[in-house]
Specification:
The chain is mainly alpha-helical and 211 residues long. The protein has one domain. It has 9 helices and no strands. The two termini are 26 Å apart. 36% of the residues are buried. The model has no long low-confidence stretch (mean pLDDT 89). It comes from Hoeflea poritis. Keywords: Membrane, Transmembrane, Transmembrane helix. This is Oxidase.
Length: 211
């Protein structure tokens, strides 16, 4: 397990998305919630539809989900073909599949809109995601602890904070959205950077073994 110390990378990964979220909140041009909401949801709550800025923070988060999923799954393919480290392969595969699921759910509002319409309870989808996440942690904890565990903890912490804000204090105010979706955006950034860097490190280590 690596030493638990905060470095400059952690500050950058947290402060950059935090600054973006704060800028979206204080800008005077449009209501901040229109920038944080999903674009389809934002389009339904504004009379000025449809503008390219609707849901821009949400879209950035979705882009990061998909980039991370693609990176991890490509790393899983490389690690599978080299067959040098099974734990590394499982980490990349589980992380890629979980992140892809989160990306699709976030992009298409699956657990909120699609699932209930086809007879799947929203809570069932959320429990399935939570179960997959727990399986990922149980299967891959050794790789996680040997990597930048502080960055991983930041990712989980901010994503959990976003969930707590949403459940404990539901609101439609601009401040609520910057707290909930701002925390989510920071969490996605931390999650993405952790998994991209870890996947690159594992592939590099595999190359060194086979080279």
């Amino acid at each position: 397990m690596r030493a638990l110390s905060v470095n400059w990378l952690h500050f950058v990964v947290v402060l950059v998305p935090a600054a973006i979220a704060l800028a979206a909140y204080v800008q005077p041009l449009v209501p901040a919630k229109l920038l944080f909401l999903d674009p389809l949801v934002a389009a339904t709550v504004t009379d000025n539809c449809c503008q390219t800025y609707l849901g821009i923070i949400s879209n950035l988060g979705v882009f990061l989900w998909f980039i991370t999923a693609a990176t991890c799954l490509f790393a899983a393919y490389i690690l599978f073909t080299t067959q040098t480290d099974r734990k590394a392969f499982e980490f990349a595969l589980f992380a890629g599949l979980l992140t892809a699921w989160l990306a699709l759910d976030d992009a298409f509002l699956f657990h909120e809109n699609i699932a209930p319409k086809i007879g799947i309870p929203q809570n069932a989808v959320l429990l399935a995601i939570a179960g997959f996440a727990v399986a990922y942690l149980l299967r891959c904890w050794r790789v996680i602890l040997s990597s930048d565990v502080v960055l991983f903890a930041f990712g989980l912490g901010f994503l959990f904070l976003s969930l707590v804000v949403d459940v404990a204090h539901p609101s439609t105010s601009n401040l609520h959205f910057v707290l909930e979706d701002g925390a989510k955006f920071i969490g996605i950034c931390c999650w993405s950077i952790f998994h991209i860097l870890t996947s690159a490190k594992l592939c590099r280590a595999s190359y060194m073994k086979t080279g």
